[in-house]
Design goal:
single chain; 284 residues; alpha/beta; Rossmann fold; Pantoate--beta-alanine Ligase, Chain: A,domain 2; 2 domains; four-stranded antiparallel beta sheet; binds adenosine monophosphate
């Protein structure tokens, strides 16, 4: 496994590989790797000759400096995990490789980056789009792999690829969950034992709401039930939303279950968690 922290040596390596017509898959991460990340890596390995995993905690996507500070960093364990997963290349740049001192570029995706996560984390998707654009330019992958776990992020990146004409295919991989249903996340390691138990409420509420929506219960009423259940469990609900899977337009009722998705965000202790569930298909 090759480990690069600078662009030049990585480009030289990629140029050699491309001359053998090898296809390249990119899996962008912020490290603190878990089985969810590994599933993206495996998807890339199935479809490409070379798989690159980038590990970079991108400061411009954190609207809260305390959150950036507390974000888990476990580079040695990550590299070990990537070796075991037979990743070909790890790219772990530092801030000066990724940003110039005068970096000011911003992205605006209209409504898409103002709702849901965008409302609670202003500027977040501008930072995501910026770092992902940089990685796409540096690596020039044939395919890039992202998780459904960050569904709005996938929609933003799809728009980015369309607008900037990046010549690559995007793959959205299913959510990998813990045995009790909690979506795997690097942030889960910051939960204490009691918070970890309470955190499963996000997934439980998504499933209950999905089942009741499919039985015809009205969404506004279901949202109230979820809010009060979160309250009783000392979980601070930020949003529970129903949206169109393609456009992410927010909905009040389900016209076509195959196009609908439920999204949730909540704080358990001081850890912010997100999750989502399609109303039909990929039932997990
Ligand atoms: P992160 O390191 O949190 O920025 O995540 C890197 C990539 O892994 C993103 O595309 C995430 O959507 C994806 N990811 C995170 N958690 C999971 C999970 N539980 N299952 C599948 N993919 C995930």
């Amino acid at each position: 496994m090759h480990i690069f922290s600078e662009i030049g040596p990585m480009n030289a390596y990629l140029k050699r590989e491309r001359s053998n017509l090898s296809t390249v898959g990119l899996v962008p991460t912020m490290g603190a790797l878990h089985a969810g990340h590994v599933s993206l890596l495996q998807a890339s390995k199935r479809e490409n000759a070379i798989t690159i995993c980038s590990i970079y905690v991108n400061p411009t996507q954190f609207n809260d400096p305390a959150d950036l500070e507390k974000y888990p960093r476990t580079l040695e364990t990550d590299i070990q995990m990537l070796r075991e997963a037979e990743c070909n290349v790890v790219f772990c740049p530092d801030n000066s490789t990724m940003y110039s001192a005068v970096s000011q570029l911003k992205f605006d995706f209209g409504a898409l980056d103002k709702i849901l996560e965008g409302e609670f984390r202003p500027g977040h998707y501008s930072g995501v789009a910026l770092v992902v654009s940089k990685l796409f330019n540096m690596v020039q992958p044939d395919r890039a792999y992202f998780g459904q776990k960050d569904f709005q992020q996938f929609r933003v990146i799809s728009r980015l690829v369309e607008e900037l004409k990046f010549d690559l295919s995007l793959v959205c991989a299913p959510i990998v969950r813990e045995a009790d249903g909690l979506a795997m996340s690097s942030r889960n390691m910051r939960l204490n034992a009691a918070e970890r138990k309470r955190a499963v409420i996000l997934y439980q509420n998504l499933k209950q709401t999905r089942d009741r929506l499919l039985q015809g219960d009205p969404f506004p009423q279901l949202r109230k039930t979820v809010a009060s259940q979160c309250d009783q469990n000392n979980v601070k609900l930020e949003y529970l939303a129903l949206a169109d899977r393609e456009t992410l337009t927010l909905l009040d009722d389900v016209a076509d279950p195959s196009r609908a998705i439920l999204l949730i965000a909540a704080q358990v202790g001081d850890v912010r968690l997100i999750d989502n569930l399609y109303l039909t298909e990929n039932r997990n």
